[in-house]
Amino acid sequence: MEALLACGGEVNAVVDGETALHRAVAEGTQALVDALLAARADPGVADRKGKTPLRRAYDNELACLALLEARADPDAKDGKGDTVLHCACEVGRDDVAVLLLDAGADKDARNDEHATPLHK
């Protein structure tokens, strides 16, 4: 992958509804997440379900930190209106919730069912 990036491979190409950054986050490959972000992968691209890479990283503190440092939107909503904070709270990831709140995530954001992260 790094050879492709060095040759100017398209880091934001969408295949099967997702980018390489989506896949790297989903697979937990932190070195690849870092390499893609260094190559200017866009952390704001949503997949076909409306999920950004940050939304997929709600259970991975290192990936969340890297994406937030790359200016990922902590309040981006998925197809159901959930933010990453909703998801982190739902699975009890207090460490990720703190990162998101420190990055300015809206603690009162409501999803399509009008639930806030506290309801999760």
TrEMBL record:
Q: Mind listing the UniProt keywords for this protein, alphabetically?
A: ANK repeat, Repeat
A Pfam family for this UniProt protein? Ank_2
Among InterPro entries, the record links this protein to: Ankyrin_rpt, Ankyrin_rpt-contain_sf
Gene3D superfamilies, alphabetized = Ankyrin repeat-containing domain
ANK repeat copies, ranges: 16-48, 80-112
This protein's superkingdom? Answer: Eukaryota
**Is Repeat given among the entry's keywords?**
yes
Whether tRNA processing counts among this entry's keywords is no
Molecular function (GO) terms for this protein are:
ubiquitin-protein transferase activity
GO biological process terms on file: protein K6-linked ubiquitination
| Protein name (record) | Uncharacterized protein
Source organism per UniProt: Zooxanthella nutricula
